[in-house]
C-alpha cells in the first residue's frame, strides 16, 4: 500500500497552479484534502505521473456567504464550512449535509470542492449541489467557465473537469423565503457512505402551501438523482388544517426515477424501499423547517 | 483432583482482585508503544507478489522488468528456497481425523489456491521501491476452476487439492449416548417433540489494528539471529525459525514487541514471512523488515466462523433436550495449518451449560479456494453457541414457554460439578466442567436486564409505534488449556522484582495483572514489580497466548514461582533474624517477625545476602563480600541445594481446561420502515472464577462484545464466484465503530476453579461468544421472523420481511 512514483508539484499561487496543470495535462492530478485520492494512490488504483498539491494556494481557502448563496473555495475544508455560521445561515443544507460526511477527522482535512470533483454518487455534497442547482467554477490557464451541477456530474466518479482545469470554487445558491431543507440518510455505520440518502428542499407560499418541493437522492444512480415533486405534493390547503399530502405517491414518484444497484451492503430492492422512506422523512422535515413549525401536523 | 492443588493463601489480600489501572496504558495511549513497524528504521523492506487468482497454475515468473528498479536488492521465488525451507509449512496440530491436512509452501510452488497467496518475495531499499518492483514482475497463470462456498465445495465438482478427494480435509463424529444407552438419533425418534432446521454463519476475521510484521537482524560475527515478530507465540516462532534455517536454538532470539492486537490470527506460525524474512536477512547479511498492510491482512492471513449447521433435536414437554444431532459443514479455506481445532471446539462447546440427553455431532472440514481458517477469538464457540441457543429458542417457541425456563430446565446444577460431558476437548483431554453456577447466573442476568418486566416495556413501545425485542444466550468456555507455561521471579538488591513469562501480550494488560499476582504473593509494593512477556531472551519455555489461557497458566506459574522466592526469602531471613520461618511475614517488601515489627529485614537485603560476592561495586554489594560478614566457616558460602540469588522459576501445567461461563441478554429495536437494527441495552453476567482485576476483565468483555456485535450485525467476508474477496478494506468490511457498540452492563459471578492455585479461569474470549445468538434472538423476538443466519443487515431484515 505505497503509491507508485510520481512528480510532486507544490505551487504557491493560483496562476502557478494553472501553469503546472496546463503543462502536465492528462497526467496530472490535483491534491487538496487527499481523503479519497491518497487511498487510491496507496492501493495503486490511481497512478498519476504528476501530483499537483494546492494546499499552499491560500487564495483558494475561502468561504463567501452572500444573500444569493455561498461560494466555497477549493481549499475550504468540510469542517470550516460546517462551522461557518454565515454559510449555514444562507444555506442551511450545507450544515445538514456536512455533519453526515464521514467523521470529524476526515472533515478536518477533506474539502467541499474536492468531494464534488470526486463525484461519488454515494456522497452527500454532489447531491446538495444538484438539489440546489448550484455550479462549479473551473479555471484553466487563460480562462474559466462556470458549469451547472446538472452538467457537472457526468457519471460515477466522473465530473466535467477537463485535463488542465482546476475546480476553484463551487456555488451553493440560497433558497427563497419560507424554504426549508433536510438531509436524511441511512448508513451501515455512523459516518459511512449512505446505503440511501435524500436531500430535500421545500418552499412554501404566503399561505404556507407547498410552492416547490425537490429531492436529490444518493447511492441510487450513477449521479445524484434530482426529482421535482412539487406537482405530486400540492399545492394543498394551508397549514392550519395540515397538509393532506399523499406521501406514498410522492415516494413512488421518486422511486420511479431512481435506478439503484445491488452491492455487498444492500439489495436494489432495499435501496428503492429505503429511498421512498427517506423521501418522505426529508420532505416532511424540510416543510416543517420552511414553515417554522407553523403548519401543524404533517 | 488437581496435581498441584494448594489451599488458597491466607495473605492474598493485596492488590489481587483490585481495579488497578493498567500500567501499559500510559505508554500505549501516548504514542510511546514500540510496535513492529516502530523498529528497524534502517532495515531493507520486503514486499510480496501475491496471487490475484483464487486457483491457478503458475506457468512462468518473469522478473526481468523489475531488475532495473533502482534500489532493488533481491527477488526470490520458491525455486530459490533451500532445503526444508522449500517444504510445505508445518501442520501445527495434527489430529487422527485430519486425514488430508494440507499446508502452503512459504512461496507458492506450481499452484496457488487463494487470492493473496505469496508467490514472489522482493527485498528493496524501502517499501515503496519494493512495491514498484513487485508491480513489474509478470507471473503467467493458467486459471483453474475456483471452489467457493462450503456447500459447493462439499459437492466436489472441482478440487482445491488434486489429491484430496471430495475436498474433505477431515471428517469426525462424536457420540455421547443418553444415560439409558440410547443414541442421539434413537432419542430424537422417541421424543415427544422434534424439530429440524438449518443455520448459517458467515465468515469474519480477527482484523487486529496492527497487522502482522517481522523484522530480522543477522549478526554475522556472532552467527546469531534476532527476530522481532508481531506474534502471539515468540518461543514457538523461535523453534520454527531455528528448524527451518538450520540454526542452533541458542543462536536465535525472538521478541514480540508491543503487539496491536492478535485475536488468534497471530498464534498461527510460522507465517511464510516469519521464516522468509529471517532467511533473507541472513543470506544478504542485511536487516530486513516486512510490515503487513491492510489489504495483505485481508487476503493472506486467516479468517474464521463460516459454517453451515444442520440440526435435529428431540425434547419433552418441559423443553428438556432428549437428543441432539448436529451436522456441521466447516469451511477451512485453502489450507489447514492449525488443524481442526475450530470445528472441534464448535462441536464440544456447543453443549454449553446444558445436560443434553444424547448428543451426536458430525463435522466435515472442507477445502475452498479462500483464505485459510484458523481460530479467531471465540474459536468456533460463537458458532456452537449460535446453534445451541437458537435451538433453545426454537424449543421455547414450539412449546410456547418462556425462553429462560427452557434453558433452566436443561442446566447442569451447581451440585453436579465436576460434570463430565463425555467428550474429548480441543486439548485431547476429557470435557469435564470444573465449577459453575448456571441457575444463579441466569437469575442475575434476568434481574440485570429486567427480563420479567420486558413485556410491559414491549407493550409501551408498541403503543408508540416502535418494535423492540429481547434475547438471551448462554455459553461455557473451556479456558486455560495446557500444556504449560512458566514464570520467573527475581528480586534484585535494589528491592525491585523482575518477572518474566514466555507467553506474549497483545494488549491484554499482562504487565498489570501479573504484577498484581506477584505483589500479593510476595508481599511487595505493586510499583516495584516489572513484567516482561514474549521475549525468548528472558524466558525460553512457553506455548503462547490464545484460548483465554494467560491468566490461568502463566498467572499460576508466576504465583508458584513467587512462592518459591518467598520460601527462600523466609529461609534466609530466618537465619539472619534468628527466627523460625513460620513466624515470618512479608509486607511492603520487608520480612518481619509476626508480632515483633522491629525484628525485620527488607527483601533487598535478603537479595544481597542470597548472592555471596567476591567483588563489591556499591554499598549494597559490599555487604555481601567475603570479609564483610562472618558466615559459618563450616558451610560453603552457597549452601548445598541452594542457588545464588533471590529468584524462583516454576511452571504450571493444568490437568485440563477450566470452564468459565456467562450469559448475555440484549434488547434491540428494529425500525418498522428502514429495518435498521439498534441495540438498546446489552447485559452480561460473567463468571471467570476469581477475578484478578475486575476492570481488566470488563475491558476484555467490552472488546469481546464489540467484536460480537461486528459478527452479528456488520462483518462478513464477501467472496464472489471467482474467489475474489470483494471487501478487502476497512471501507467495505464493516468493523463496528464505538458508535455501533452499546453500553455494556456487566455483573460478575465468581465460582473459583478448583483446578489451579489461584482459582482463576480465562476471560479473554468470553465477550464475543454468545453475541450473535443473543442479537438473533432479540431481532426474532422483535420481528416474529425466525433468524437462522448471521450477520444480519437492514437489507437482510428487509428481505426477510418481504418474504414473510
Structure description:
The complex is a heterodimer of chains A (298) and B (804). By secondary structure, chain A is an alpha+beta fold. Chain A contains 12 helices and 14 strands. Chain A folds into 2 domains: 1-174, 2-Layer Sandwich (Uridine Diphospho-n-acetylenolpyruvylglucosamine Reductase, domain 3); 179-290, Enolase-like, domain 1, CATH 3.30.390.50. Chain A has a 5-stranded antiparallel sheet. In chain A, α11 crosses α12. By secondary structure, chain B is α+β, with helices and mostly antiparallel strands. Chain B folds into 3 domains: 25-33 and 482-610 and 645-652, Aldehyde Oxidoreductase, domain 4 (2-Layer Sandwich), CATH 3.30.365.10; 36-144 and 212-259 and 266-300, Aldehyde Oxidoreductase, domain 3; 173-205 and 303-481 and 655-803, Aldehyde oxidase/xanthine dehydrogenase, molybdopterin binding domain (Aldehyde Oxidoreductase, domain 4, 2-Layer Sandwich), CATH 3.30.365. Chain B has 19 helices and 29 strands. In chain B, β13 and β14 form a beta hairpin. In chain B, α5 (234-245) packs across α6. The radius of gyration of chain B is 28 Å and the shape is globular. The chains are: A alpha+beta (298), B alpha+beta (804). Chain A binds chain B through residues 1-5, 39, 43-44, 186, 188-192, 195, 264-267, 269-270, 273-274, 277-278, and chain B through 127-128, 131-132, 135, 293-295, 673-676, 714, 718, 726-727, 729, 731-732, 734, 736-737, 739-740, 793-795, 798-799, 802.
How are the elements arranged and paired?
The complex is a heterodimer of chains A (298) and B (804).
Chain A: E1 7-9, H1 14-24, E2 28-31, H2 37-42, E3 50-53, E4 63-66, E5 69-73, H3 78-83, H4 85-90, H5 92-98, H6 104-109, H7 112-118, H8 124-132, E6 135-140, E7 143-148, H9 149-152, E8 153-155, E9 158-159, E10 166-173, E11 179-187, E12 194-204, E13 210-218, E14 225-228, H10 230-233, H11 247-255, H12 268-290
Parallel strand pairs in A: 1-3, 2-3
Antiparallel strand pairs in A: 4-5, 5-10, 6-7, 6-10, 8-9, 11-12, 12-13, 13-14
Helix pairs in contact in A: 11-12
Chain B: H1 25-29, E1 44-50, E2 56-62, E3 72-76, E4 111-112, E5 118-124, H2 127-136, E6 138-143, H3 150-155, E7 168-176, H4 184-190, E8 193-201, E9 213-219, E10 224-229, H5 234-245, E11 252-255, H6 272-284, E12 288-291, H7 294-300, E13 307-315, E14 321-333, H8 341-349, E15 359-367, H9 381-399, H10 403-410, E16 419-424, E17 430-433, H11 438-449, H12 454-463, E18 467-479, E19 485-491, E20 497-501, H13 510-522, E21 529-533, H14 550-577, E22 584-587, E23 590-593, E24 596-602, H15 603-609, H16 619-622, E25 646-652, E26 658-670, E27 677-687, H17 694-714, E28 744-748, H18 771-783, E29 789-790, H19 794-803
Helix pairs in contact in B: 5-6, 8-9, 9-10, 9-18, 13-14, 17-18
Amino acid at each position: 500500500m505505497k503509491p507508485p512514483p510520481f512528480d510532486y508539484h507544490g505551487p504557491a499561487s493560483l496562476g502557478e497552479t494553472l501553469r503546472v496543470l496546463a503543462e502536465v495535462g492528462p497526467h496530472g492530478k490535483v491534491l487538496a484534502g487527499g481523503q479519497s485520492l491518497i487511498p487510491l494512490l496507496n492501493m495503486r488504483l490511481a497512478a498519476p505521473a504528476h501530483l499537483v498539491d494546492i494546499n499552499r494556494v491560500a487564495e483558494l481557502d475561502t468561504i463567501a456567504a452572500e444573500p444569493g448563496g455561498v461560494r466555497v473555495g477549493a481549499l475550504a475544508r468540510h469542517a470550516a464550512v460546517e462551522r461557518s455560521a454565515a454559510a449555514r445561515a444562507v444555506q442551511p443544507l450545507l450544515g445538514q449535509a456536512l455533519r453526515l460526511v464521514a467523521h470529524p477527522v476526515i472533515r478536518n482535512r477533506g474539502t467541499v470542492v474536492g468531494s464534488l470533483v470526486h463525484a461519488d454518487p454515494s456522497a452527500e455534497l454532489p447531491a446538495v449541489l444538484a438539489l440546489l442547482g448550484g455550479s462549479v467554477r473551473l479555471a484553466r490557464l487563460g480562462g474559466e467557465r462556470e458549469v451547472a451541477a446538472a452538467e457537472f456530474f457526468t457519471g460515477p466518479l466522473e465530473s466535467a473537469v477537463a485535463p488542465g482545469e482546476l475546480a476553484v470554487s463551487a456555488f451553493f445558491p440560497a433558497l427563497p423565503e419560507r424554504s426549508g431543507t433536510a438531509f436524511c440518510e441511512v448508513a451501515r455505520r455512523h459516518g459511512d457512505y449512505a446505503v440511501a440518502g435524500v436531500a430535500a428542499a421545500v418552499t412554501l407560499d404566503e399561505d404556507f402551501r407547498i410552492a416547490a418541493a425537490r429531492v436529490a437522492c444518493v447511492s441510487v444512480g450513477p449521479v445524484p438523482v434530482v426529482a421535482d415533486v412539487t406537482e405530486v405534493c400540492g399545492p394543498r390547503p394551508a397549514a392550519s388544517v395540515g397538509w393532506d399530502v399523499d406521501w406514498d405517491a410522492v415516494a413512488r414518484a421518486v422511486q420511479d426515477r431512481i435506478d439503484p444497484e445491488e452491492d455487498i451492503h444492500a439489495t436494489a430492492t432495499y435501496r428503492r424501499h429505503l429511498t421512498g422512506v427517506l423521501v418522505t422523512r426529508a420532505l416532511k422535515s424540510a416543510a416543517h423547517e420552511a414553515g417554522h413549525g407553523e403548519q401543524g401536523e404533517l | 483432583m488437581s496435581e498441584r492443588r494448594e489451599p488458597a493463601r491466607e495473605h492474598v489480600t493485596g492488590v489481587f482482585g483490585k481495579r488497578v489501572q493498567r500500567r501499559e496504558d500510559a505508554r500505549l495511549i501516548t504514542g510511546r508503544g514500540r510496535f513492529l513497524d516502530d523498529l528497524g528504521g534502517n532495515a531493507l523492506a520486503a514486499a510480496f507478489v501475491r496471487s490475484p487468482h483464487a486457483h491457478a497454475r503458475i506457468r512462468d515468473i518473469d522478473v526481468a522488468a523489475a531488475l532495473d528498479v533502482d534500489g532493488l536488492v533481491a527477488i526470490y521465488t520458491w525455486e530459490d528456497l533451500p532445503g526444508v525451507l522449500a517444504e510445505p509449512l508445518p501442520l501445527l496440530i495434527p489430529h487422527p481425523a485430519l486425514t488430508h491436512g494440507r499446508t502452503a509452501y512459504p512461496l507458492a510452488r506450481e499452484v496457488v489456491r487463494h487470492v493473496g497467496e505469496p508467490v514472489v518475495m522482493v527485498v528493496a531499499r524501502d517499501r515503496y521501491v519494493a512495491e514498484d518492483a513487485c508491480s513489474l514482475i509478470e507471473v503467467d497463470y493458467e486459471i483453474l476452476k475456483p471452489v467457493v462456498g462450503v456447500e459447493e465445495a462439499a459437492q466436489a465438482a472441482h478440487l482445491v487439492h488434486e489429491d484430496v478427494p471430495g475436498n474433505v480435509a477431515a471428517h469426525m463424529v462424536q457420540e455421547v449416548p443418553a444415560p439409558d444407552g440410547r443414541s442421539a438419533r434413537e432419542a430424537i425418534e422417541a421424543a415427544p417433540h422434534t424439530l429440524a432446521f438449518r443455520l448459517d454463519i458467515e465468515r469474519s476475521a480477527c482484523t487486529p489494528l496492527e497487522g502482522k510484521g517481522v523484522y530480522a537482524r543477522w549478526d554475522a560475527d556472532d552467527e546469531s539471529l534476532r527476530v522481532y515478530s508481531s506474534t502471539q507465540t515468540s518461543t514457538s516462532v523461535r523453534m520454527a525459525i531455528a528448524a527451518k534455517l538450520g540454526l542452533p536454538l541458542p543462536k536465535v532470539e525472538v521478541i514480540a514487541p508491543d503487539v496491536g492486537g492478535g485475536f488468534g490470527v497471530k498464534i498461527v506460525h510460522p507465517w511464510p514471512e516469519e521464516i522468509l524474512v529471517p532467511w533473507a536477512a541472513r543470506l544478504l547479511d542485511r536487516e530486513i523488515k516486512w510490515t503487513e498492510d491492510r489489504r495483505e491482512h485481508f487476503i493472506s492471513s486467516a479468517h474464521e466462523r463460516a459454517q453451515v449447521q444442520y440440526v435435529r433435536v428431540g425434547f419433552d414437554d418441559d423443553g428438556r433436550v432428549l437428543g441432539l444431532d448436529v451436522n456441521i459443514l466447516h469451511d477451512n479455506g485453502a489450507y489447514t495449518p492449525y488443524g481442526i481445532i475450530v470445528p472441534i471446539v464448535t462441536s464440544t462447546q456447543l453443549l454449553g451449560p446444558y445436560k443434553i440427553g444424547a448428543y451426536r455431532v458430525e463435522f466435515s472440514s472442507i477445502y475452498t479456494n479462500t483464505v485459510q481458517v484458523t481460530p479467531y477469538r471465540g474459536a468456533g464457540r460463537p458458532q456452537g453457541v449460535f446453534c445451541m441457543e437458537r435451538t433453545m429458542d426454537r424449543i421455547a417457541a414450539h412449546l410456547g414457554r418462556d425462553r429462560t425456563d427452557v434453558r433452566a430446565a436443561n442446566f447442569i446444577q451447581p451440585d453436579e460439578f465436576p460434570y463430565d460431558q463425555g467428550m474429548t476437548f480441543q486439548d485431547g483431554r476429557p470435557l469435564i466442567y470444573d465449577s459453575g453456577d448456571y441457575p444463579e447466573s441466569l437469575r442475575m442476568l434476568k434481574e440485570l436486564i429486567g427480563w420479567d418486566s420486558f413485556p410491559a416495556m414491549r407493550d409501551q413501545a408498541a403503543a408508540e409505534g416502535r418494535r423492540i425485542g429481547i434475547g438471551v444466550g448462554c455459553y461455557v468456555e473451556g479456558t486455560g488449556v495446557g500444556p504449560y507455561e512458566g514464570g520467573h521471579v527475581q528480586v534484585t538488591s535494589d528491592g525491585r522484582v523482575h518477572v518474566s513469562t514466555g507467553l506474549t501480550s497483545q494488549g491484554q494488560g499482562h504487565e498489570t495483572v501479573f504484577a498484581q499476582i506477584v505483589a500479593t504473593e510476595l508481599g511487595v509494593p505493586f510499583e516495584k514489580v516489572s513484567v516482561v512477556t514474549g521475549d525468548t531472551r528472558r524466558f525460553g519455555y512457553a506455548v503462547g497466548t490464545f484460548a483465554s489461557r494467560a491468566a490461568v497458566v502463566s498467572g499460576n506459574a508466576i504465583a508458584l514461582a513467587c512462592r518459591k522466592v518467598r520460601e527462600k526469602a523466609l529461609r534466609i531471613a530466618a537465619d539472619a533474624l534468628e527466627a523460625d520461618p513460620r513466624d515470618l511475614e512479608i509486607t511492603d517488601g520487608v520480612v518481619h517477625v509476626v508480632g515483633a515489627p522491629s525484628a525485620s529485614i527488607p527483601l533487598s537485603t535478603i537479595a544481597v545476602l542470597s548472592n555471596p560476592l567476591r567483588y563489591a561495586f556499591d554499598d549494597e554489594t559490599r555487604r555481601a563480600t567475603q570479609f564483610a560478614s562472618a558466615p559459618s566457616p563450616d558451610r560453603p558460602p552457597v549452601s548445598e541445594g541452594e542457588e545464588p540469588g533471590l529468584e524462583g522459576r516454576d511452571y504450571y501445567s493444568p490437568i485440563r481446561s477450566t470452564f468459565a461461563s456467562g450469559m448475555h441478554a440484549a434488547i434491540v429495536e428494529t425500525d418498522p420502515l428502514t429495518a435498521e437494527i439498534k441495540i438498546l441495552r446489552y447485559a452480561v453476567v460473567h463468571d471467570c472464577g476469581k477475578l484478578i482485576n475486575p476492570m481488566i476483565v470488563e475491558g476484555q468483555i467490552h472488546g469481546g462484545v464489540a467484536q460480537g456485535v461486528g459478527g452479528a450485525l456488520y462483518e462478513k467476508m464477501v467472496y464472489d464466484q471467482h474467489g475474489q474477496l470483494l471487501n478487502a478494506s476497512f471501507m467495505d468490511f464493516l468493523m463496528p465503530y464505538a458508535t455501533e457498540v452499546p453500553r455494556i452492563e456487566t455483573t460478575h459471578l465468581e465460582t473459583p476453579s478448583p483446578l489451579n492455585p489461584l482459582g482463576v479461569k480465562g476471560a479473554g474470549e468470553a465477550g464475543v461468544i454468545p453475541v450473535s445468538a443473543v442479537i438473533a434472538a432479540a431481532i426474532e423476538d422483535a420481528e416474529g421472523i425466525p433468524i437462522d443466519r448471521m450477520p444480519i443487515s437492514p437489507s437482510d431484515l428487509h428481505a426477510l420481511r418481504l418474504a414473510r
